[in-house]
Design brief:
Layout: H1 2-26, E1 41-55, E2 62-79, E3 82-96, E4 99-115, E5 122-143, E6 146-168, E7 173-193, E8 197-218
Antiparallel strand pairs: 1-2, 1-8, 2-3, 3-4, 4-5, 5-6, 6-7, 7-8
Organism: Mangrovivirga halotolerans
InterPro entries: OM_autotransptr_brl_dom (IPR006315), OMP/PagP_B-barrel (IPR011250)
Protein name: DUF3575 domain-containing protein
Length: 223
């Protein structure tokens, strides 16, 4: 995982320069109209969900596919429109067809966000988070009454990027839409069954998703 450690080092360097720039930038601007002001806390929940069913014309077999994800975040504005906090992301995919699949991925890390506009009705925002990720993927197939497949499990370093828009419904209630991009570098163990043979691989995993949710602005810490 030398590549992951190197990326983690560069991620820390980037985060340090990013926060230094935030401090200098905040000293030269006056964002009176924005609700994203220094000292405020913001906490929120957003997510994605989809489900589908397919029925073959030639068989009575149904195929199910479910996908969902959740983002849980909280942080404090260290300067006007600059937020520093934490984020937890969980995603899961289940499919039940000829091939069954269960995939889970977790991510947790520090979060830094910038809101571009000082408009009191809302703003575009961008967020970046380097952190820890875990991954598990199990695929199975029943052939001649025998279950065959493999299970991949591991953890490593990840980068989580978000770009979206936050709309101020009320001065404390926010509606958020976002495009989420993640990339992870994972050292994983691959177990094949029923042979129970094990191999080890370095994986790079990328995902793209859209999310929506709600945030609240508070004077004190919440969550």
């Amino acid at each position: 995982m030398h590549g992951g450690l190197s990326l983690f080092k560069w991620g820390i360097i980037f985060l340090t320069y990013f926060l230094s720039f935030a401090e200098v930038h905040s000293q030269n601007e006056d964002s009176v109209g924005t609700p994203f002001i220094k000292g405020k806390w913001i906490s929120g929940l957003s997510g994605t969900i989809s489900s589908g069913t397919a029925i073959s014309d030639t068989t009575t077999q149904r195929a199910f596919n479910n996908n969902y994800g959740m983002n849980l975040s909280t942080g404090k504005f260290i300067a006007n429109r600059w937020m520093l906090g934490l984020i937890f992301n969980s995603s899961r995919q289940n499919s039940n067809d000829i091939i069954k699949r269960n995939l889970e991925q977790l991510f947790i890390g520090p979060l830094v966000s910038y809101y571009f506009s000082d408009n009191e009705t809302g703003s575009l925002f961008v967020s970046l988070s380097p952190g820890y990720t875990s991954f598990q993927d199990e695929i199975s197939l029943v052939r001649n009454g025998l279950v065959q497949g493999e299970k991949v499990k591991g953890d490593g370093f990840g980068l989580y990027f978000r770009f979206g828009y936050t709309y101020v419904i009320h001065h404390r209630i926010l509606l958020e839409f976002g495009l989420n991009v993640s990339n992870s570098w994972v050292g994983a163990e691959r177990l094949s069954f029923p042979a129970n043979s094990r191999t080890y691989n370095n994986l790079q995993i990328g995902t793209l998703s859209f999310s929506f949710g709600f945030n609240v602005l508070l004077d004190d810490f919440f969550f």
